[in-house]
Write a structure and sequence with these properties.
By secondary structure, the protein is α/β, with parallel strands linked by helices. 23% of the residues lie in helices and 26% in strands. It comes from Lotus japonicus.
Length: 358
């Protein structure tokens, strides 16, 4: 179809200040062009990062802010240069909507590390307009940042895969940790953590969930299929598990000591940080030096990795554990998320929600 240059308005739910309370908000979508895809949002996952952003936990929030970066929807219209997508197709869009396309990261198809990447909300697009996220009726995304969804995966299941699942898949792939038989640890059993268990088990790993209490032990083992469960405050069990893991995926989004977990790693083991934390983390260097261990980080995944992960998900016949809510429940969902009271990912049924009083 032709260029989508007409101005469009839509309605979403936005935070107006650091209270983080969301309410209906009508706004103008950014200028569009020949490479853009106009999408009607069906579902949008709820990530802990959304809470950080609406409450200005990182000190860089701009309001009004429409959050939501795990978007699944239907293509309503495409620009004249769009070749990958057609009207009526169900597609996904994640955290990024722009990059420079010239730097080493972009040229290497890992655009999530581009220094000039553009977030899908709480950022400014190339036309100078603020970006807004997926807690809205419609969005506009450049085709480069839209992903194809394999047939056979329920759209509500796809939403949390676009951030939580690829966040786990990307470092396992990059660091050569996809081979079967490895022993992995998942620290924290929230949205990302539960994806870690599912994906690592599907890769044939022996998976140990590490948590601060035994509250989720039955769920981890019975529901998600973890092989073992460690309570970090149980000194005896932690000592018995020393030097046993090839890697640990650390999903905890608040400050915590690293030493207890570094001791669990084998020689050359990796502690992979994924939680967004705004306070310094500490460790003593011998814990790293004496096992040639690595502390590293990883950030979501590329479009290429996202589509690879979706194919892996379909091939293995995997399912995630989600709780579907309507938009008018979103403030309560945020409250529960902060209390870790969700098993394990909220997904907003945007299409089925009444976004604004008529």
């Amino acid at each position: 179809m032709g260029s989508l240059e007409a101005e469009r308005t839509t309605v979403g739910w936005a935070a107006r200040d650091p209270s983080g309370i969301l309410s209906p908000y009508t706004f103008t979508l950014r200028n569009t062009g020949p490479d853009d895809v106009y999408i009607k949002v069906h579902y949008c996952g709820v990530c802990h990062t959304d809470v950080h952003q609406v409450k200005n936990d990182l000190g860089m929030s701009n309001y009004p802010m429409v959050p939501g970066h795990e978007v699944v929807g239907e293509v309503l219209e495409v620009g004249s240069d769009v070749t990958r997508f057609t009207v009526g197709e169900i597609v996904g869009a994640g955290l990024l909507v722009g990059c420079c396309k010239k730097c080493t990261a972009c040229q290497s198809d890992i655009e999530q590390y581009c220094k000039k990447k553009i977030w899908n909300y709480n950022d400014v697009y190339v036309d100078g307009k603020p970006t807004q996220g997926g807690f809205a009726e419609t969005i506009i995304v450049e085709q480069k940042f839209v992903v194809k969804i394999p047939e056979g995966i329920a759209p509500e299941q796809v939403a949390p895969l676009l951030c939580a699942a690829v966040t786990v898949y990307s470092p396992l792939s990059h660091f050569g940790l996809k081979e079967s038989g490895l022993r992995g640890g998942i620290l924290g059993l929230g949205g990302v953590g539960h994806m870690g268990v599912i994906i690592a088990k599907a890769m044939g790993h022996h998976v140990t969930v590490i948590s601060s209490s035994d509250r989720k032990k039955e769920e981890a083992i019975e529901d998600l299929g973890a092989d073992a469960y460690l309570v970090s405050s149980d000194t005896t069990s932690m000592q018995e598990a020393a030097d046993s893991l090839d890697y640990i995926i650390d999903t905890v989004p608040v400050g915590h000591p690293l030493e207890p977990y570094l001791s669990l790693l084998k020689l050359d083991g990796k502690l992979i940080l994924m939680g967004v934390i705004n306070t310094p983390l500490q460790f003593i260097t011998p814990m790293v030096m004496l096992g040639r261990r690595s502390i590293t980080g990883s950030f979501i995944g590329s479009i290429k990795e996202t589509e690879e992960m979706l194919e892996f998900w379909k091939e293995k016949g995997l399912t995630s554990m989600i709780e579907i809510v309507n938009m008018d429940y979103i403030n309560k969902a945020f409250e529960r998320l902060e209390k870790n009271d969700v098993r394990y990912r909220f997904v907003v049924d945007v299409k089925g929600s009444k976004l604004i009083d008529q």
